[in-house]
Structures are given as structure tokens and as C-alpha cells.
Amino acid sequence: MLSGRGLDHLIEQNETDLGFLSAYGGGESPEELLRLVSQSICDGMIVTAVEHGVQFKLEASNLPLVNSDIHRRGFLNGELTDSGVEVTITDFGPEQRRFIERLVEFIQSE
Fold it and tell me: Cys-Cys link to 2, which of 6, 28, 51, 70 (CB 3.0-4.6 A)?
């Protein structure tokens, strides 16, 4: 049985700062996501802060993407068409970094 202090102590233990976990993405505010994503994009990519994250748009044909690229954890309302991609980025973890890096490489090789 826990004493009165036991529950408080347990709560204190679990309030430990785990800032290093942010390297894996998740929990960023739309403003923080906008800052992170903006540092990674190149010309032609448009990003804006929205309620649930960052709206990402790129108009280009023959993008090196498939629908499953934008229907993963950290992406919301993805739409891939012949003329581009539009998706809301809700986290900035490895999946989102790879997504943007792949598109930057594609744009810069054109």
C-alpha cells in the first residue's frame, strides 16, 4: 500500500524532463514545427502553420513519392496528385525528415 507521500513521489518521478526524446519527433507546437520544417525545405516548397501542424505543399510532376509516404504517423490529410503533394506534418521525426530530404534532393537534381 502506498502512503500519502508515495503517490506524490511517483508523480514526481514521472515528471522527469525527457527532452532528448524530441529527437524522435512528436509534441511540437505548430510554430515549432514550422521553424523545424522551414530549416529543411528548399525553393518551391510552401509551408504554413495550421491548427494541427504545418501544411506542406509542393507543385511538381513525377515526384518520387507513393501514397503510403504521406499516410504514416506524423502526417495528416495527405494528397498526392500528378501535379504535386499536399500534406499536414504533425510531427518532425525521422519519417518527416526523410520525406523532406528526398523531395529536396529531387528538386535540386532537376
Answer: 6
3-state secondary structure of 83: coil
Q: Coil, strand, or helix at residue 7?
A: helix
Burial letters 41-60, b for 16+ CB under 10 A, else e? beeebebebbeebbbbebee
Using alpha carbons, list the distances in angstroms from residue 65 to 69, 100, 101.
6, 11, 12
Return the residue matching grid coordinates 530549416: 39
Question: Do β-strands 53-59 and 75-81 pair in parallel, antiparallel, or remain unpaired?
Answer: unpaired
Show the cell assigned to 110: 532537376
In the 8-state DSSP scheme, what is residue 24?
G
**DSSP letter assigned to residue 10:** H
